[in-house]
UniProtKB/TrEMBL annotation:
PANTHER family: ELECTRON TRANSPORT COMPLEX PROTEIN RNFD, ION-TRANSLOCATING OXIDOREDUCTASE COMPLEX SUBUNIT D. Coiled coil: none annotated. Keywords: Cell inner membrane, Cell membrane, Electron transport, Flavoprotein, FMN, Membrane, Phosphoprotein, Translocase, Transmembrane, Transmembrane helix, Transport. This is Ion-translocating oxidoreductase complex subunit D. InterPro entries: NqrB/RnfD, RnfD_bac. It comes from Zhongshania arctica. It is an enzyme of class 7 (translocase).
Length: 349
């Protein structure tokens, strides 16, 4: 009997790759709306320009590899990478920074390994880390959120001008450090005093950041409802981050690392939990493996935030666990149907 030599997955149905990617894009809307409301149109410009450049780089790579361009562009994977990277970058990032990031994500982190399904690292997070290490000034310059200063947010036209470098001096925009960065640099004020003196802080996290996190949480709940991924990775990540921040929270001294609520709704925590950790290609495969994978990411996020050099550590933590995912898979393989566990480990049948 001859067997068909085809690569996985072998299942075809309504939940195709393109449909999954469209659902992920749809789920980013609440978070994108919150970022736009509080930080102006800079993030939308990021996403728009990242999408254009990502599609262009994807088409170029497919042409060089002699693959059907329209067929692979229609799976929306390049657009998802562009959205994730555009959301991660500071609002109104310069056009060349976005172009370098999307080029690195698509050409180096994805196509160089063979395309979607073969990349060992999350392309958006790998590109983000590369940009953060290479261009730290541009990657840490965030516009002040609505309600924290007396200036105006970037409108759609000003955001385009800001991105492409036309007339920046005429744009009334103020930059501020992020709440995570302020807390990390603090060594003299109690948390309560820091909250009163810094205009970036909101109810339990940063102004704008907490609502953006709620938006990405809602998008993640929608994806869970549609069964795009399982709960194991994101919930275990959020649980381990909560436990770590609760253990080391001292009530609010000047040396405090922040409360569990602050860590859950600051930075890229919710965005990372539901849109990055759930990447099926670079995460662990089994449900037990996903629990371990997500939990270790949560632990690493707190360790780097509290004692490392970077205030937000989602990208670094994810990439470190991308390295470890094959190792986790090796020791969390589910029992083969019809065999006992000891049979798989070399015991007698």
């Amino acid at each position: 009997m001859g067997f068909l030599k085809v690569s996985s997955p072998h299942t075809h149905g309504p939940m195709s790759t393109a449909r999954v990617m469209r659902l992920v894009l749809l789920a980013t809307i609440p978070g994108l709306f919150s970022l736009t409301w509080f930080f102006g149109f800079g993030t939308l410009v990021n996403v728009l320009w990242a999408s254009i450049t990502a599609l262009a780089f994807e088409a170029l790579a497919l042409k060089v590899r002699k693959r059907p361009i329209a067929f692979y562009l229609n799976d929306y994977s390049a657009l998802v990478t562009a959205f994730l990277l555009g959301i991660s970058l500071p609002p109104g990032s310069p056009f060349w920074l976005i172009m370098i990031g999307t080029g690195f994500a698509i050409l180096i982190c994805k196509q160089l390994y063979g395309g979607m399904g073969y990349n060992p690292f999350n392309p958006a997070m790998a590109a983000y880390v590369m940009l953060l290490i290479s261009f730290p000034v541009q990657m840490t310059t965030w516009l002040a959120p609505k309600g924290s200063f007396a200036g105006d947010l970037l409108g759609p036209i000003d955001a385009l001008r800001y991105c492409f470098g036309f007339g920046k001096d005429a744009i009334d925009a103020v930059t501020m450090a992020t709440p995570l960065d302020i807390l990390k640099q603090n060594n003299s004020l109690l948390i309560a005093d820091l909250w009163e003196e810094s205009p970036q802080f909101g109810q339990f996290a940063g102004i704008g950041w907490e609502w953006a996190s709620i938006g990405f949480l809602l998008g993640g709940m929608y994806l869970l409802y549609r069964r795009v991924f399982t709960w194991h990775g994101p919930i275990s990540m959020l649980a381990s981050l909560t436990i770590m921040s609760a253990i080391f929270y001292d009530g609010g001294s000047s040396a405090s690392g922040g409360s569990p609520l602050f860590h859950l709704f600051s930075g890229a925590t919710m965005f990372g939990a539901f849109f990055i950790v759930t990447d099926p290609v670079t995460s662990a495969v089994s449900n037990r493996g996903r629990v371990i994978y997500g939990a270790l990411i949560g632990v690493l996020i707190y360790i780097i935030r509290a004692w490392g050099n970077y205030p937000d550590a989602v990208a670094f933590s994810v990439l470190l666990m991308n390295f470890a995912a094959p190792f986790i898979d090796h020791y969390t393989q589910p029992r083969t149907y019809g065999h006992k566990l000891k049979d798989q480990q070399g015991g007698k049948s």
